[in-house]
Design goal:
mainly alpha, single chain
Length: 715
């Protein structure tokens, strides 16, 4: 249970985040012109202007400024054209239905160009549906289109102006959030040392946190480099952000280091308080990193340097005491693994101290740019946007394309929603279709989760808004609540969909109360009915209309992890044996392994909620955990590990482990399974000594065994 101090920290983290910043920017960009219109009596005529500002603002997601700018320009043009065409066709129901079909398909297909382009397309659909409302003035559709474009241009100008005033603010906030997420990842790993911990559940939590870290890390990489290019600056502030980011990459890799089997570790130390001490120190380490991240998010230097001298001294003393009072080779190996963990903690503390120095701008502003240039190359290969070639759309005109399937699914769902609304004589057809658009997503588990959150959030928002309007009659206070609800809704938009729906519903109902106080109660009931209809249609469409199942792609994701770990092991082996001097090759292999592992973890989490996957998930869960342990142990390899092994065994290990992993890849290939070939024969291990390399070998063999079982079950 969180204490009062913890609640204050959570509030501070939220109100200094880029999400809150985005909520404030959107609310200000829409409310300023709205208040002016209310004051001048122009509100009813100015609604298209406000919609233009709002729906362009929702495309203004975090990222490099030129991506944000291009997205807003595309939103302005597409929204204005949509209003123009919808108004022109409104009186012809056949052509209007044809427009709904064509726009639903092609606008939803824009997601092939990236998430931002997908958002532009989705919001253009929302604009189309809102302009289908019978309450709109469809005679002046040219004026409405011009006002919609004007609102979008106003917001785009406002947003770019804010960026120019504080070009590094968003990068700072995103960087601070990244460090806070790494701190959460460290907390998840601390559970491995907690007494009575469920190790499998702890691994699942670690994998979830890792997915979140890597997703944000990719966005942050692009944001930082593109921001630097935009302002062409090499100031201490710019260099500070860059160095903190580069340090955070190595910090995250070191947090993944694993030296032991945690279940055995708990067995060997169950009569001691040794693991409790490690658990406490790791949590303190996470708290220090969170403090640094929060300071960066606030835009202030960290004043206090982390000091773990006493904690590390106590850990070493405790380890030495237990070594003197324990016997047995296996127990000794577990204690040695804890010694390596202590060294890992000390290394992480040193990195935290460097982060503090960077936040204080106490750095050389002209260090070597080798690592930075390498990161720029990585960023260039992981851009969010894709070239806007028409050929890309044509290439996706196949059922093998998930984007094409999603476009078909959404279009069919819109037809069904339109038809049912007409059959039931629903007065607000566009609300049913809006619900379908906002709930139905390309991935089944996201649609399923959003569906539940949409229904619960709408009910909660209606109840809260009804209570507010029953208790509050002062219009000034209601206006304050309206603005506050809007601010909270758009702050929650990208991090908490349930919270977004609750506050959005409150905001909409209070708005209707101002616009039409005599009819808004009827609108509440109609909104609930329309939400229910749209929710049911979206759920059925996600389940039965050209569904995309992650379990169909899970084998290829597993093969990618095995191949990435094989290359990662070889790159690490070359580094620690001195056979390779190209650090960039190791960094690339490391990044590929982490990305592949994260994608597998993400796919597996999505697969778990798909129908009929309960039995099959057990073996895949074992595979994911073993793969995670393998990547972590490869990351922890060092020259010291080779010194603990017989030197004549070294060539055997360098051949054996890659061969086993390559065989595991082949086991998941259906053609190889049906007609196996002895192409990958691993030599039997000669050494019985337990060390990090032998553990890697054991994990590779475990993965081979699991893939054989999966292959048998698939036949």
């Amino acid at each position: 249970m969180l204490s009062g101090k913890d609640y204050l920290k959570e509030i501070q983290k939220f109100t200094t985040s880029q999400y809150w910043n985005s909520g404030v920017r959107i609310t200000t960009g829409v409310m300023v012109p709205m208040l002016i219109m209310v004051n001048k009596g122009w509100l009813s005529e100015g609604i298209p202007f406000l919609w233009g500002a709002l729906f362009v603002s929702l495309t203004d997601t975090p990222g490099p400024i030129h991506h944000r700018r291009n997205g807003m320009i595309a939103g302005v043009i597409l929204n204005a054209l949509t209003v123009l065409i919808t108004g022109f066709l409104f009186d012809n129901h056949v052509l209007l239905l044809l427009q709904v079909l064509v726009f639903s398909f092609f606008f939803s297909l824009l997601g092939i160009y990236g998430a931002r382009a997908g958002a532009v397309g989705t919001l253009a659909l929302v604009v189309m549906l809102l302009n289908m409302s019978p309450m709109r003035d469809h005679e002046n559709y040219v004026l409405n289109a011009m006002l919609t474009a004007g609102g979008g241009i106003w917001y785009a100008t406002f947003s770019i102006m804010l960026f120019r005033l504080q070009p590094y603010r968003l990068a700072e906030q995103a960087l601070g959030e990244q460090l806070i997420q790494i701190a959460d990842y460290i907390r998840a790993r601390a559970a491995f040392y907690e007494a009575g911990s469920d190790i499998d559940a702890a691994f699942t939590k670690v994998m979830q946190e890792q997915v979140d870290v890597l997703k944000n890390q990719n966005q942050l990489r692009e944001l930082i480099f593109k921001t630097r290019q935009f302002v062409s600056d090499a100031s201490p502030k710019s260099r500070s952000i860059m160095m903190v980011f580069l340090e955070s990459l190595d910090l995250f890799e070191e947090t993944m280091y694993t030296y032991q089997d945690y279940k055995l570790l708990h067995q060997h130390t169950r009569h001691t308080d040794l693991l409790k001490k490690f658990h406490t120190v790791i949590l303190e380490l996470a708290a220090e990193l969170e403090h640094i991240g929060l300071s960066i998010q606030l835009g202030v230097p960290v004043k206090r340097t982390p000091d773990f001298t006493n904690e590390l001294y106590e850990l070493r003393n405790a380890l030495q005491h237990h070594k003197l009072n324990s016997s047995g080779k296996v127990v000794g190996q577990s204690l040695h693994a804890l010694e390596l963990t202590t060294e890992n903690i000390e290394s992480l503390v040193n990195r935290l101290c460097r982060l503090v120095v960077y936040t204080q701008l106490q750095i050389d502003i002209n260090p070597t740019l080798q690592d930075e240039e390498e990161e720029q190359r990585n960023a260039a290969s992981q851009l969010e946007s894709k070239p806007l070639h028409v050929s890309l759309i044509l290439e996706n005109f196949t059922l093998r394309s998930n984007n094409f399937r999603y476009a078909l699914r959404l279009t069919v769902a819109m037809i069904i929603g339109y038809t049912i609304s007409a059959f039931l004589s629903v007065s607000h057809t566009y609300w049913v279709l809006l619900t379908i658009i906002t709930i139905l997503k390309p991935v089944y588990n996201v649609t399923r989760r959003r569906n539940i959150q949409r229904v619960v959030g709408t009910l909660g928002g209606v109840l809260a808004a009804s209570l507010i309007l029953y208790l509050v009659s002062n219009e000034t206070f209601l206006l304050i609540l309206l603005i506050s609800s809007m601010l909270m809704a758009y702050s929650f938009l990208r991090i908490n969909y349930l919270g977004f729906v609750i506050f959005l519903t409150i905001y909409i109902i209070i708005t209707f109360h101002f616009l039409n106080p005599t009819e808004f109660k009827n609108l509440i009931g109609e909104r609930l009915v329309d939400t229910a209809i749209g929710s049911i249609i979206a759920a059925l469409a996600a389940r039965f209309i050209f569904p995309v199942w992650q379990h169909e792609n899970i084998k290829s994701a597993m093969q990618e992890v095995l191949e990435a770990n094989r290359k990662y092991f070889l790159a690490a082996w070359h580094q620690i044996t001195g056979q390779g001097t190209d650090r960039s090759a190791y960094n690339t292999a490391r990044n590929d392994a982490i990305v592949a592992l994260t994608n597998l973890s993400d796919n597996f989490q999505q697969m778990l909620v798909e129908p009929g996957q309960g039995k099959r998930s057990t073996l895949i869960h074992q595979f994911v955990i073993a793969s995670h342990a393998l990547t972590s142990r490869i990351s922890a390899l060092s020259p010291k590990d080779l010194l603990m092994m017989p030197q004549d065994n070294l060539p055997q290990w360098s051949e054996n482990i890659p061969a086993i992993l390559q065989e595991s890849v082949a086991n998941l290939d259906s053609e190889y399974t049906l007609s196996p070939k002895p192409a990958f024969v691993a030599k039997p291990s000669k050494s019985s000594a337990i060390n990090l390399v032998s553990i890697i070998d054991s994990l590779a063999q475990e993965l081979r065994t699991i893939t054989k079982k999966i292959a048998v079950d698939s036949v």
